[in-house]
Amino acid sequence: MPTSKATATWKGGLEGGTGEYGAGSGSFEGGYTAATRFEGKSGSNPEELLAAAHASCFSMALAANLEKAGNPPESITTAAHCTLEMQEDGPKITTMKLVVQGKVPGVDPAAFAGAAQEAKNNCPVSKALMKNLEVELEAKLA
User: Fold this and answer.
1) DSSP letters spanning 22-91
2) Radius of gyration (Cα) for the chain, nearest Å?
3) Listed residue (107, 136, 3, 127) closest to 57, CA to CA
4) How far apart are CA 117 and CA 91, in angstroms?
5) SS3 for 14-38, per residue?
6) Tens-level pLDDT at each residue, the chain (142 residues)
7) Which residue among 1, 97, 103, 112 is least enclosed by CB atoms within 10 Å?
């Protein structure tokens, strides 16, 4: 299996500093600041990138589960909501909520929810995160 790479550079102190990140493949890049991370200002932040990674991984795992069960999906759309909260010892990512909607002919809501739960428990990003934070799931058919 390949090893994926991304880079990030931060310049300056926390309040006045700026950061840039990019994928090793060159497929994406962007910037971030303390204001985009902690104040909800326009722009990206590490939690948004983590949420994108989790939504992508989960969607692929769910599609694989459904296909393996004989019901390949027409589409899977996942929104991941990554919550950063201030704790006594500093900021902490506390929750990742996955909200998924699938268009899957021939699958009932219970089967879809079961396949989604399996994907939540077994996608590689979920496995990396679940020992450190709560991962919630909401699954619906379109």
Assistant:
1) EETTSS-EEEE-HHHHHS--SSB-HHHHHHHHHHHHHHHHHHHHHHHTT---SEEEEEEEEEEEEETTEE
2) 17
3) 127
4) 28
5) CCCCEEEEEECCCCCEEEECHHHHH
6) 789 999 999 999 999 999 999 999 999 999 999 999 999 899 999 999 999 999 999 999 999 999 999 999 999 999 999 999 999 999 999 999 999 999 999 999 999 999 999 999 999 999 999 888 889 999 999 8
7) 1
3-class secondary structure, 104 = coil
Quote the tokens at residue 140: 């619906």
The structure's pTM equals: 0.93
For the record, the structure tokens of 92 come out as 């902490």
Domain extent listing, the chain? 6-38, 46-141
Residue 106 CA to residue 113 CA, distance in Å, equals 14
Residue with tokens 């932040």: 45
CB atoms inside a 10 Å sphere around CB 133: 14
Work out whether strand 29-32 and strand 134-141 pair parallel, antiparallel, or are unpaired.
unpaired
Which residues share a beta bridge with 136? 97
